[in-house]
Amino acid sequence: MNREILPIGSIKSAKDVGEIVSRYRKMQELTQVELAGLAQTGTRFISDLENGKGTVQFDKVMHILDLLGVEVVAKER
Amino acid sequence: MNREILPIGSIKSAKDVGEIVSRYRKMQELTQVELAGLAQTGTRFISDLENGKGTVQFDKVMHILDLLGVEVVAKER
DNA sequence: CAAATAAATTCCCGATAGGGAATAATACAA
DNA sequence: TTGTATTATTCCCTATCGGGAATTTATTTG
């Protein structure tokens, strides 16, 4: 398990966001079940999200990131 | 109409991303129809997205942002 | 103002998101 | 190994996404 601080990074795909969610959930010692409870969603959604499913709903993803303390910023490329 | 450069900003919701898409699409003088064509999607999706619909699919949103030259970065809050 | 262009809304409808619950698979410890 | 906890997958199911096209509404232009 990598415990270093992530400068997190660029989100280009659902896979990227899935990795971030998985990492930050574990850093906070939450199980998928617990995170689903906090987010008032199902465990299926958390599993799908962490596994990079691209068709997850945008607002649900943002809510999870917010719960985990991850901020999302837009910049010009 | 605000034409200043946006330091873009934090994305907390679908409404935020909708505003960014609308703004950057217009900055590049694209119509919704043209952007939909570039993204191989429908105009309904572009309209929904720009109007802040939260249930749009994550990967579709990311693809639109990429087309518009908007990078998305994750940071710790 | 009217005309032209763009955007939003509506309809039909096939595809699928995602909830809950059960099961299977995987990881981890003792 | 066996047991335990966690995660992934499957099923059933309802709700809705989103494409395409048509229409309505809004915006821009002359």
Q: Considering the protein shown, what is the CATH homologous superfamily of chain A?
A: lambda repressor-like DNA-binding domains
Identify the CATH class of chain A: Mainly Alpha
Name the assembly state.
homodimer
pLDDT average of chain A, as an integer? 90
List the secondary-structure elements of chain A in sequence, H or E. EHHHHE
Outline of chain A: globular
Strand content of chain A: 5-15%
Q: What report would you give on this structure?
A:
- The structure is a homodimer of 77-residue chains.
- With 77 residues, chain A is mainly α.
- Chain A has one domain (14-67): lambda repressor-like DNA-binding domains (434 Repressor (Amino-terminal Domain), Orthogonal Bundle).
- The first copy, chain A, is built from four helices and two strands, in the order βααααβ.
- The termini of chain A are far apart.
- Chain A binds chain B through residues 5-6, 8-14, 17, 20, 54-59, 61-62, 65-66, 69-77, and chain B through 8-14, 17, 20, 54-59, 61-62, 65-66, 69-77.
- Chain A binds a DNA duplex (30 and 30 nucleotides) through helix 3.
Which terms would index this structure?
homodimer; 77 residues; mainly alpha; 434 Repressor (Amino-terminal Domain); 12% strand; disordered N terminus; DNA-binding
